[in-house]
Design a protein that fits this description.
The chain is an alpha/beta fold. The chain folds into 2 domains: 5-109, CBS-domain (Roll); 138-280, CBS-domain (Roll), CATH 3.10.580. The chain has helices at 5-8, 22-32, 53-57, 82-92, 111-120, 144-154, 174-184, 186-192, 203-214, 243-253, 273-277, and strands at 10-11, 16-18, 36-41, 47-52, 97-101, 104-109, 138-139, 158-162, 168-173, 231-232, 237-238, 257-261, 267-272.
Length: 282
């Protein structure tokens, strides 16, 4: 039986109204651990646009959503197949597709929603056979400010971290910067004026992390190396690992990417969820 978008999408997604502000959206993002939110008109559930974390980061001077949002985002029907969704995502690089039925927003679908479809099809195709996304390694002692610039200019969401001998020692993602930095780095908490453990997930802390991220040129970023906030000994897959197994690892661990290593555990590539779901495309 054909699997449709309706079968796998997130129904009744969290939305934000237009007009609105960046602050409104960011509060929702941190509260619900989201990377993108559909925007709707205040009257009715009519899609007005889409805003993702990258949209916010790429417009650091703007506060009004109408100046930040994607005004004509890619959308999809709930009756479209998962193959249709995968094709749209992989060709446009859109990772959030609002689902529209009878002119109204009824859901949203992301690459994460498609991982199980890849997994259950039990493909034996090795990940090395895929057209993989760019891999941008970074040295473990690189200052955080350099890592932030690297994220921005390379337009990747994860950097594999290498030690002084060129061996993979960790990974740093945009999620680490947003969600983990102030929890694991007490020195930075003090330098940035962040609160204590009781309010680690407060909006004030999150706002400070965002300032650090997208207004690097305007504030003093703590002089800490990438090694202080990276995830050590990251989960990896081998070049010969099947796509289905990689999809299972991503889904079970809520990973959007995995470093790919060779038989000697040397970094070979990065595998992203968009790469994985490309196997659903005819």
């Amino acid at each position: 039986m054909m699997t449709t978008v309706r079968d796998v999408m997130t129904h009744n997604p969290i939305t934000a109204p237009i007009p609105g502000t960046r602050t409104d959206v960011l509060k929702l993002m941190v509260k619900h651990n989201l990377t993108g939110i559909p925007l709707v008109r205040r009257e009715g559930n009519i899609l007005a646009g889409m805003v993702t974390r990258w949209d916010v980061l790429n417009s650091p001077e703007e506060e009004q959503l109408v100046l930040i949002m994607q005004k004509d985002p890619m959308v999809i029907s709930p009756d479209a197949t998962v193959e249709d969704a995968a094709r749209t995502m992989t060709t446009t690089k859109a990772t959030h597709l609002p689902v529209i039925e009878d002119g109204k927003l009824v859901g949203i679908i992301t690459p994460t929603d498609l991982l199980y479809e890849v997994e259950k099809r039990a493909s034996d195709v090795p990940v090395e056979n895929l057209t993989l996304s760019p891999c941008v390694p970074i040295y473990s002692e690189t200052p955080l400010v350099v890592a932030l610039v690297t994220f921005r200019v390379s337009k990747v969401s994860a950097l594999p971290v290498l030690d002084g001998s060129g061996q993979l020692t960790g990974i740093i993602t945009d999620r680490d910067v947003f969600n983990k930095f102030h929890i694991h780095e007490s020195v930075a908490e003090q330098d940035m004026g962040l609160g204590g453990e009781d309010d680690n997930w407060s909006w004030e802390n999150y706002r400070n992390i965002l300032r650090m991220w997208y207004q690097v040129s305007k504030i003093d970023v703590p002089l800490v190396p990438v090694s202080r906030i990276m995830t050590e000994s990251p989960t990896t897959v081998f070049k010969r690992t099947s796509v289905s197994e990689a999809a299972r690892t991503m889904r079970r661990n809520d990973f959007g990417q995995l470093p790919v290593v060779d038989s000697r555990d040397r970094l070979a590539a990065m595998l992203y969820d968009l790469d994985v779901i490309s196997t659903l495309v005819d």
